[in-house]
Amino acid sequence: MTDGAHDPDDLDALRAASDVLGIDALVSPAERETRDTVRAFVDAEIRPHIAGWFDRGVFPAELAPALGRLGVLGMTLEGYGCRRAGAVEYGLAALELEAGDSGIRTFVSVQGSLAMGSIHRWGSEEQKQEWLPRMAAGEAIGSFALTEPGAGSDPASMTTFARRDGSDWIIEGAKRWIGLASIAHVVVVWAQTDEGVRGFLVPTGTPGLDIAVLGPKGSMRASVQTHLTFDRVRVAASALLPGARGLRGPFSALNEARYGIVWGALGAARDSYEAALRHALRREQFGRPIAGFQLTQRKLVDMVVELQKGALLALQIGRAKDAGTLTPAMVSLGKLNNVRQAIAIAREARTILGGEGVLLENSPIRHAANLESVRTYEGTDEVHTLILGQHLTGLNAFR
């Protein structure tokens, strides 16, 4: 090692040097403890295996109970076995999970924010008692079906329809890019009805429900996305989420998931940066570590500038959420910026690793691929741009 160079094996020291603004001091001891607990879990349970899971294109469903014991499934919800953690605490957990892999953080988001969040906010007491404790423990897995083959960014145009048949409901239609459904026990299905958009809890073994896994994929390979077909799927009246009417139901869950992405993208970006930094300190060319060359240092500096800005952005949004002052525009700004910058960081980090950067043992190329999906789901760049545009001008450019 060159005299004066930082030790690439001293990750704590590298992180301290990278926290130029002292942002770590802005989180509370309890928030820091949760972050460190989730970080240790990722180091022990995800990092040793993630390259293999990604390469084989499998999601490790056996992680669900372990994530339940970790307390990150529905962790911001109250009661029913959930922790009722603060928004910043959850954000830090999401960051550490996505530092492991976007697919793992996505599982926690689909399970906790989308499926459990919908049941907790809009479900009957019987529905909550039936599903939430088991889902919080990772003993039951939930899915969330909103997007359709012809209705992605425009959910108001969904064609899946539920009609009354006596006291039952019959659902017909299709949903696409639905996370977890092939391993789930229940799907929160959003459908048009004569009363507007309503939500239903549909067990995955219900006759007429066909679930096909989508693939092969070049992104989010350690995750599972599906296509759902509803052929006269009959559910009882008790399947209806009584509190949800209109698009406010699914949108409330989507905003929770988008908030997690604001933090999660930083995890993928930070992990990419750290992989590049440690490699640059170890790799010698022309008689010195490549970290000592000006072009490499510029790349590392540019990454840290965006990581620090993104962390401040996420923290401000999280504090607003904890204070009850969060707005959709804040979340859109955070998702748009942090994912966009995370992709740039992951790609730049790969260049520092050179040819070694295409191997899955090194994380930046996997993060870069995953982030292309993260950039698309829960609102594309275009959608969040128009949300912010409407906020700034008062004019709706969607229609």
Automatic annotation (TrEMBL):
<dbReference type="InterPro" id="IPR052033">
    <property type="entry name" value="Glutaryl-CoA_DH_mitochondrial"/>
</dbReference>
<dbReference type="Pfam" id="PF02771">
    <property type="entry name" value="Acyl-CoA_dh_N"/>
</dbReference>
<dbReference type="InterPro" id="IPR036250">
    <property type="entry name" value="AcylCo_DH-like_C"/>
</dbReference>
<comment type="pathway">
    <text>Amino-acid metabolism; tryptophan metabolism.</text>
</comment>
<dbReference type="Pfam" id="PF00441">
    <property type="entry name" value="Acyl-CoA_dh_1"/>
</dbReference>
<dbReference type="Pfam" id="PF02770">
    <property type="entry name" value="Acyl-CoA_dh_M"/>
</dbReference>
<keyword id="KW-0560">Oxidoreductase</keyword>
<keyword id="KW-0809">Transit peptide</keyword>
<protein>
    <recommendedName>
        <fullName>glutaryl-CoA dehydrogenase (ETF)</fullName>
        <ecNumber>1.3.8.6</ecNumber>
    </recommendedName>
</protein>
<dbReference type="InterPro" id="IPR009075">
    <property type="entry name" value="AcylCo_DH/oxidase_C"/>
</dbReference>
<dbReference type="InterPro" id="IPR037069">
    <property type="entry name" value="AcylCoA_DH/ox_N_sf"/>
</dbReference>
<comment type="pathway">
    <text>Amino-acid metabolism; lysine degradation.</text>
</comment>
<feature type="domain" description="Acyl-CoA dehydrogenase/oxidase C-terminal">
    <location>
        <begin position="245"/>
        <end position="392"/>
    </location>
</feature>
<keyword id="KW-0274">FAD</keyword>
<dbReference type="InterPro" id="IPR009100">
    <property type="entry name" value="AcylCoA_DH/oxidase_NM_dom_sf"/>
</dbReference>
<comment type="similarity">
    <text>Belongs to the acyl-CoA dehydrogenase family.</text>
</comment>
<feature type="domain" description="Acyl-CoA oxidase/dehydrogenase middle">
    <location>
        <begin position="143"/>
        <end position="233"/>
    </location>
</feature>
<dbReference type="InterPro" id="IPR006089">
    <property type="entry name" value="Acyl-CoA_DH_CS"/>
</dbReference>
<dbReference type="InterPro" id="IPR013786">
    <property type="entry name" value="AcylCoA_DH/ox_N"/>
</dbReference>
<keyword id="KW-0285">Flavoprotein</keyword>
<dbReference type="InterPro" id="IPR046373">
    <property type="entry name" value="Acyl-CoA_Oxase/DH_mid-dom_sf"/>
</dbReference>
<dbReference type="InterPro" id="IPR006091">
    <property type="entry name" value="Acyl-CoA_Oxase/DH_mid-dom"/>
</dbReference>
<feature type="domain" description="Acyl-CoA dehydrogenase/oxidase N-terminal">
    <location>
        <begin position="29"/>
        <end position="139"/>
    </location>
</feature>
